[in-house]
Description:
Structural class of chain B: mainly alpha
Shape of chain A: globular
Largest interface: A-B, 44 and 44 residues
Helix content of chain B: over 70%
Shape of chain B: globular
Strand order of the largest sheet of chain B: 1-2
Distance between the termini of chain A: 70 Å
Radius of gyration of chain B: 23 Å
Number of helices of chain A: 11
Largest sheet of chain B: 2 strands, antiparallel
CATH superfamily of the domain at 133-253 and 290-310 in chain A: Response regulator
Order of helices and strands of chain A: HEHEHEHEEHEHEHEHEEHEEHH
Oligomer: heterodimer
Strand order of the largest sheet of chain A: 2-1-3-4-5-11
Radius of gyration of chain A: 23 Å
Number of strands of chain B: 2
Order of helices and strands of chain B: EHHHHHHHHHHHHHEH
Strand content of chain A: 15-25%
Number of strands of chain A: 12
Strand content of chain B: under 5%
Amino acid sequence: MRKTLFAAATALLLAGSISSDASAADKLKVGFVYLGPIGDLGWTYQHDQGRQALVKELGDKIETTYLENVPEGPDAERAIEQLVRAGNKLIFTTSFGYMDPTLKVAKKYPNVHFEHCSGYKRDKNMATYSARWYQGRYIQGQIAAKMSKAGVLGYIGSFPIPEVVSGINATMIGAQSINPNIKVKIIWVNTWFDPGKEADAAKALLDQGADIIMQHTDSPAPMQIASERGKLAFGQDSEMIKFGPKAQLTSILDTWGPYYISRVKAELDGTWKSEDVWGGLDTKMFEMAPYTNMPDDVKKLAEETQAAITSGKLQPFKCPVVAQDGKEVECKGGDHLTDPQILGMNFYVKGIDDKIPGK
Amino acid sequence: MQLVLEKRAERSNTIALISPLIAIGLTIVTMIILFAILGKNPFAALVVYFIEPLTDSYTLQEIAVKAAPLVMIAIGLSLCYLANAWNIGAEGQFLIGAVAGSWLAVKTQGTEAGHWVFPAMLLLGAIAGALYALIPAICKVRFGASEILTSLMLVYVAELFLDYLVRGPWRDPNGFNFPTTAEFDPVATVPLLVEGGRLHLGTIIALVVVAAGAVLLGKTIKGFEIRVVGAAPRAARFGGFNSNQLILLTFAISGALAGLAGIIEVAGPVGHLQPNISPGYGFTAIIVAFLGRLNPIGILIAGLFLALTFIGGEQAQIAMKIPLDVTKVFQGILLFYVLACDSLILYRFRLVSSSRQQVARGAH
């Protein structure tokens, strides 16, 4: 008797969930796959901020679902496919490691559209998107060179992939435009997020004489260390000013909202196409946090550089780009390096007294 | 009056049978309360969690795919643990097996190699896993080094070695320097059992491993030796069993199975070698081994059950917008209750009046 009651109850509940699905059926379902937990700041948090902006703008027409903390391994394909099977028609996969799983699922479900962040493989129904963060790094390089008394920058690298290497190079090219003798010390922490390791790296860099900390990792620990020691630092991904009110010069902010809104609008209009979008300051694919803790002339310089990059007048990788070995890099893009050259960057520019790990 | 936990004279077989059921019952009650506090319909959540994944051929496949490596590794670990040898490093053996098998896949890439490639990769994976597991076993037997520490630390060595290979020598030349090898050729990938699905040959191999484990433990002298050495080392010595030899053997078997699971995972669901190929299978398998009471059939059930909680957890996130943390809490609570209830097999609660306890102590 109790068994049948339970079965009846589950049947009722199942029926209930199905009917609520039906009422939501006319809304477009949009799915997100996140690498980390959402948390309070950092990479995944910024993607979720983008999702929330999307809900705010188009909430009456769409329904969003996300899966967080999905590892970039054998589970990723299943997570993406689960979203497809739950009826999502547009799915954003927000980490590089989801590239092949996304492609596999995309081939299996040709009527569902996919958007993969920061990869290079595409298909009819799989687009890619990323941001030209190196533009922001160039501005940071100029600020750093102006603000550093020691002439030594401390750089915390995550993994020596092209995005990070091009970030270091853009920083140095920017810094050299102010001080040709600027030096940089680099520590690789081999992680995107590990407050302990990042803090240790920041301490080591300051101990080695750097007086500006730059990071390509996610946690606010380096900012806190710089702040404790009365030094200056740049944030990453998110606004980090509350971790270093007297330390943060600016921060590269990942602002995915406008992009997500435009893509979902295209999906709603039936105009979605597979594209490769590498947006910069001009399309607000990322933004710079307010310029703080610097004199007005430096702030003015930063703003001018930002405006020049936004208008396209200034190319951070303007030719000639001279590699570490003193040889000029082939200038494939007329007066600047081409996108594939930047996307596959695997060399340091002149003036960096270090070597890319594993090279 | 005092509530004490007292050792039973002999293990209670009734409790051994019903303890997992009590644990699941308590988990369900706890989760009903938790879901209710979160304002979610607890019954609907439980249906999404436990019942829906079992009603659909797609999720059933996914459960099998997720469980296969866990079961394979856990069977090997159970042999170690039964023989009182503590292999904590299955994760490392998994990675080394994946690396060794991938070596062949990378070397034969684009060479039109024949169908011998995949079986050879499996063999390489198993051998490499076994050899890697023998390092802590030999250190234990020869030098008395704690195999718990050495096997665990070798996990980090394996992780870094894999990392080095995919960032350096084996990196896909057309991959924009990202740390991954190129996708393996079709002859170097695990054959699929269902067209368009993800169910692969590895799930069958896992079942064969379960059967082999059951035969080894239940029907052979070696299996008997393993159990005696673990349960009664002195008796085993009198019986002339060589416990050192058994440590080497069980470590080698469990390393081979972990290595096999590793190469199957890389050549199957992942499709190439990259830094993150395991969401901690080697460690989760330890839980599976104990949840299955170190018994091959039990391990099969435990592996499938744990896989069900992963897949059900994802569906709960999607269908009911239940946060990931809650699905993790769910798994944690379940394990907690299982282990807590298991202690009732060997122990029981008794109400003891404090005066009697004093008398008992005085009598000693």
